[in-house]
Amino acid sequence: RGRMGSRLRAAWLTGKTRPMEYRVAQLEALGRFLDEKKQDILEATSLDMSKVRGRGKAQGALRRLQHLDPASGRHVEKNLVTQLDSAFIRKDPYGVVLIIAPWNYPIHLLLVPLIGAIAAGNCVIIKPSETTKNTEKLVAEALPCYLDKDCYAVVTAGVEETTKLLENKFDYIFFTGSPTVGRIIMTAAAKHLTPVTLELGGKNPCYVSDNCEVHNVARRVAWGRFFNAGQTCIAPDYILCSVEMQDKLMPALREAITEFYGPNPKESPDFARIVGDKQFRRIQALLGSGRVAIGGQTDEQERYIAPTVLADVKASDPAMQEEIFGPILPIVVVANMDEAIDFINARPRPLALYVFSCDNKVVKEVLERTSSGGFCGNDTLMHVTLTSLPFGGIGNSGLGKYHGKFTFDTFTHHRSCLHRNMGLEAINCPRYPPYNQQKLGLLTSGSLALALVPVGVSGVG
Ligand SMILES: *[C@@H]1O[C@H](CO)[C@@H](O)[C@H](O)[C@H]1NC(C)=O
């Protein structure tokens, strides 16, 4: 493993990953991996989580990034004394970066950052999740056949080996996972002052105001909550609404669930399973919160948990103490919007916040008076389908952002550059000692920044 690190470091120092053509060629190779291994990827992910539909989103990102010219510097405004010079921001790669992917979307959440890291010109160490064994194996075996082995490597590692891996110095770490592990990553990164992006989770509130068309609300919330059996970091985690709305919503949610997954969701090819036994038992224990109004059935053998709605859940119940990350939707009754806002603000900042209301003012007010990584009014999940919007958390839900061009920026160091003209030395004279009143006058009145005057020089106010 140490050898792998030094191989990538050496490749980085040759500058091999910098030319545009090289980056495009590697991205194209990644595209071939997706095309040729499509069936294997679908099989591996469905073995890991009974996933039913693949997604080809990464290819879109790839096409888009190919149109960027990474290394072209952006010229910026100049002051009077740099008029003859060239001032620009250069988009440099960081160097050797580490990407740690999660298990809930084991391919997608690995490839999207990887594409950005390659496009930005970095060498990359990729660590797929050890929880999704089949996908991990596929990535470890197949991906290196497509990418340049000098510059890109896949490591397979459990907790212990990952801890070891993190002792190495990286130039950037991109992590997707839980806030708990996020803290461990950031602590390890701090040792080397390595910058990080942390894509974490949290409990995403969904406030449903009284004047709503319940059938549409129910469908949009049920879709967001039960997608991938709730194992989605931006899923609505719980509903906040009045007791009247809870009564109206319940039959509508039951209808939506039946419409999506049939009378027995266990038989639906569109309803996923829980990823592992540990996770299954954790989620199952949350079923004791409030009262089971819909669903509640489980099958440990299959790691199946039915789409479940819990009514009258209290803030002190187990389901409200942790991110659910499973197909359970608790409803917490609040008196009104103000109480919902207080409830949200009394807790760690979520990755996503959802509000449903026929009254635009309600949506706007909740947006105005709360804080979250992202926000979607009148729907769930849909804001992340826009690659024009940066995706990321705030506070407990993460640090940094990506998607679309923001992924490229995340893996890019914006280097400030000034190329000066060697002539016209007269312009520079006032900044050189010895100082006199005339020079200081020029310095302080002119466009030369005060910063050029040494601290403690007399006559400068
Ligand atoms: C939410 O949907 C309702 C009903 O269609 C609409 O009147 C309202 O403007 C929407 N709110 C926002 C913020 O788009």
Automatic annotation (TrEMBL):
Active site: E199, C233
Residue span(s) of domain Aldehyde dehydrogenase: 16-415
UniProt entry tagged with the keyword Transferase: no
Highest taxon above the source species: Eukaryota
Keywords assigned: NAD, Oxidoreductase
One Gene Ontology CC term in the entry: cytoplasm
Any one of the GO BP annotations: aldehyde metabolic process
This protein's record includes keyword Oxidoreductase: yes
GO molecular function per UniProt: 3-chloroallyl aldehyde dehydrogenase activity; aldehyde dehydrogenase (NAD+) activity
Record-stated family: Belongs to the aldehyde dehydrogenase family.
Identification of the protein by name: Aldehyde dehydrogenase
InterPro entries (UniProt xref): Ald_DH/histidinol_DH, Ald_DH_C, Ald_DH_CS_CYS, Ald_DH_CS_GLU, Ald_DH_N, Aldehyde_DH_dom, Aldehyde_DH_NAD(P)
